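User: Some background: our group keeps a shared notebook of sequences we're curious about, and every so often someone picks one and asks for a predicted structure to add to the entry. Today it's my turn. The entry only has the sequence so far, pasted here. Could you supply the structure so I can complete it?
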Amino acid sequence: MIRRLLIAALVAFTLSANAFSQQPEHGSPAEAKAMLTKAVAAVKADKAKALAMFNAGTGGFRDRDLYVFCFNAGDGKIVATGNPNAKFVDQDIRSLKDSSGKTFGMDLYAAGQKPEGQITQVDYIFVKPGADKTPAPKSSSVTRVRDIVCGVGYYK
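Assistant: Of course. Here's the predicted structure to add to the notebook entry:
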């Protein structure tokens, strides 16, 4: 009797631990904002090292469908993107359009022209990273950090 109780308790504990350890498939707005805050601190500490981590998706700068992207505030040249599907480095952010034809790159660039530290939301449609490469509604928080602009977006 006690043995059965112990086994039942162990099975229940294992199942509940597995349920609690699973993360949602997509990052949340709060997680995206937290990653942006972390990215800003990394750029201020060591810009070259931060951009390398963003591009590699290391240091906690890639989590499920959350990743950091950055571009030069002046010429709009993309200098980092942690999206494993995207090959946008060295392209002008202003040239990016979504599948609906919206020039969201211009909106991202305009957000980056605001005063340093001001966070702006930009909504657009973008292809999800990973195996599911379907376009989906996305919202990115964007802010200027000295001479570059960084953002992190989440899928709605």
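Suggested note for the entry: The CA atoms of residues 12 and 126 lie 41 Å apart. The first helix runs from residue 2 to 21.
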